Amino acid sequence: MRKVHISHAKSGDVLAVDLFAANGSVLLSRGVRLTSGYIRSLAQKGVQYIYIDDKQTYDIRPRPLISPTVRQQAVKKVYETMTALIEQKKLLSRVSSLDLGKEYENVFKDILDYLLKQEDLLINLSDLVISNGYFFHHSVNVATIAGVIGIAKGYRPQQLLDLGIGALLFDIGMTQLPDGLWRKKGVLTEEEKEIIRRHTHLGFELLRRQRNISLFSAHCALQHHERCDGSGYPRALSGDDIHEYARIVAIADVFDALTSARYHRRQYSPHEAAEYLSAAGGMLDYELIKLFLSYIAVYPVATTVKLNTGEVGVVSQVFPGFPLRPIVRVIKNPAGEELKTHISHPLDENREDFFVPMSNESLTHKERKGVFLL
């Protein structure tokens, strides 16, 4: 399979990865032959990239961090919890009667069990999600990424559970905000941003009332927008005053937000998101970022890239420990003509001169400073 922008999809292309709806159910199954109507509908729903199968890349398959079944069950639980809170707008005192702790402990245990079975942990998220399902899938992605970082840190089982539960529920305060605000497709005003910033306190107050959720987990909701240089909110904390779980969730949140399809801005490649994190200017924990980047597939399997020769290829293999040196399968010559026989190249030492991902331009300095991540 290979990843292509929706604008490059053609009628007759075969979808290679399931497309998920907001509640985790399959909206469009892999193996479906796309029509112009399907492509137009996907673009309208905010899908920016899709994975397609073709004869040159049929055997290229990204290995998911967690199984589709585990992911769907996790997304379903997040969807059920969040939509109930959104629709009913329960008072915080009434929410305390729920047992979110036990429910989400079971959800994260399934994710964690799958992660711990992996011989090589390499973050390569390839699920396709429509934009209005971002909120629910984002929580599962953040928890999965946070779990990888926690494992890499050598956390004990209880630490991993506290981190994972906090990561799954870190944005729960958003359910207490006006629906139209956090679902808004356009650019937010400063007043609207100020209202949205309240979700950190609302989430903390909600979670700390739960008898089976630790305060450590609740602090993921309270502090995931704090920044190490003191520029964050709600309390402008800095450095070690921010709980390490919240610092981990912040990194996972930013990375997955940038690499997800959103109505109000373009979807960035993992390479661009990694560049953003590396240039975060002390806002995020640098040591945790370095650890995270050693486990992320910056050029994920199935990514289309352009070589310095002008040839076009698809990343066919990524090696744990060497995520910046994948193997690339060349599928087009410099003239843009498809090759009858593909050629595979290992990435050489001089990475910068070898290839660049075929995506939009990299994040500008202005974008690094101005992107508002919910």
Describe what you observe in this structure.
The structure is a single chain. The strands form three sheets. The protein has a five-stranded antiparallel sheet, with no helix packed on it. Among the domains are: 61 residues, Molybdopterin biosynthesis moea protein, domain 2, CATH 3.90.105; 200 residues, Hypothetical protein af1432 (Orthogonal Bundle), CATH 1.10.3210.10. It contains 14 helices and eleven strands. The chain is globular. By secondary structure, it is α+β, with helices and mostly antiparallel strands. Helices cover 40% and strands 14% of the residues.
Secondary structure: elements and pairs:
Elements: E1 2-5, E2 14-15, E3 19-20, E4 26-28, H1 36-44, E5 49-53, H2 68-88, H3 92-95, H4 100-117, E6 128-129, H5 134-152, H6 157-168, H7 179-182, H8 190-196, H9 199-208, H10 215-223, H11 244-258, H12 270-278, H13 286-293, E7 304-307, E8 312-319, E9 322-332, E10 338-346, E11 355-357, H14 365-370
Parallel strand pairs: 3-6
Antiparallel strand pairs: 1-5, 2-5, 3-4, 7-8, 7-11, 8-9, 9-10
Helix pairs in contact: 2-4, 2-5, 4-5, 4-6, 5-6, 5-11, 6-10, 9-10, 10-11, 11-12
